[in-house]
Amino acid sequence: MKEAATRAETVRDSAAKAWLRALQLTAPIKEHPERTLPAVIDELAAKFGDAPALLSDHECLTYRALAERSNQYARWALDQGLGKGDAVGLFMANRPEYLAIWLGITKVGGVVALLNTNLAGPSLAHCIDIVAPKHIICGAGLRSRLTDLGRVWIEPDIEQHSGEILTEDERRPLTINDRALCIYTSGTTGLPKAANVSHGRILQWGNWFAGMMDTHSTDRMYDCLPMYHSVGGVQAPVSVLLSGGSVVICDKFSASQFWTDIARWDCTLFQYIGELCRYLLHHEASPGETLHRIRLACGNGLSPDVWRSFQDRFRIPKIFEFYAATEGAVSLFNVEGEIGAIGRVPSFLGHRAPAVLVRFDIDADEPIRDEQGFCIRCLPNEVGEAIGPFVSGASDVSTRFEGYINTEDSEGRIIRNVFRQGDAWFRTGDLMRKDERGFFYFVARIGDTFRWKGENVAASEVSQAICEQPGVKQAIVYGVAIPNADGRAGMAALVLEGQLDLSAFRADLIKRLPGYACPLFLRIQKELELTGTFKYTKTGLASQGYDPSQTSDIIYFNHPERQAFIPLDRMLCEQIESGVIRI
User: Which CATH superfamily is domain 10-252 in?
Assistant: First the structure.
């Protein structure tokens, strides 16, 4: 008991120090509004010189080289006549040069739109059109996608430009309130939206995570996440660079190369997102997977059913899970290492109230209101939508909502008259619960929650229960419509490893889940489609439904009379849809 109490006290003390460091590092941002990240990079170049900054197998940049390279791109932008606020699209795979490009262009007032390299066709055209870039800088392997759209790309000739610090005549007045980047949402529930990211928010992200992770010049971050994403392209590299450390830029994630790279580059940190950790956990064991100096893994989306096994197998001393929105307003941080939690607000910051949970009506797709028309706060362990105070144009970049390029998209995320007449809050679109100790737990995206037999089913909770079953490698859950049935029935797409004992699988799910939450259909697939940020895409699966004629995959039906999963054919489908089989 005494040992456990001492351990708990140590965890609390460590967490308090992390919060204090983060607050101390971010406090000066608003006090120096003209000090943007490109200016900070020049300062770091003077301090760290030839120390390694960005590393890869193809190119490496020291701090001095990174600053010089960014200055060359700044002068290129000036030579192109780029005005303050003009957009440039960046369509390029991961490499150290990527960061130098947007640092340089934003240094002279340009706005860089980080285009998702997985997109093509209409989705890519949409992302380009909404920012209307003056130019598009494109990587060599991606140019055909632009020519297919009739778009013109440019290859900057920067060698003719000096890498020296910009003169006063070349500088443009910039503050932390000016927009620097456009970063797109994942597009898992519709076309991507372009979120505004100011110079201040970039510094907020970098300094906050530098404090939370306690980064030092001796640290080396392994970053295999896409650089068009806020985590892989901004938060991960900037948080380490600000402390004088170095960042290993990998062109893409590879489960077979991950631990080899970690050891080869002598990394002390790595960044994860989504299902990356599950991929590593299900990959075959290798002798080198524990021969590393990793002290901390930072990221979001680590499933509770993976957490402990991942940490134990790969000997990760500490996992730092967080929740945040690119466009701002709500963020949560789990520095205590509480398994499954996405964050907690310490008592000394309770007045900030970064997130409040309100009761939510799945059918109406909006928060529930009382007789006076106001939202109702959730009780402990009650599931509700997370909202945050809507602050626009405030000097504190940590709390303001910076919105999207499209003002209609921005307005759609605001809910008004929440707790009093005239107030406004930011809607996260995420359902969470908060326990008695104040820890927040992610439940589901609102679009991933469906109603069946009069009850709300959280897809993520069902998929977690399924993934804990022997033989299941991956699973996603979604609702499918059945004629003459109210709501949507649960369906799970599974990737298996080895044999799945359907009888034992069904029996265990019945023990773990309420009857209404047990999936009615199973679809066995060879692999699941992922976005570039390791999120599952469900739109295509949901639209195909459970009809076996729509796929060559095997589909099973949870037969209520036979009390078993049985193969689904067209005749059985007709019996389900006609009501012969009561579901």
Answer: ANL, N-terminal domain (3.40.50.12780)
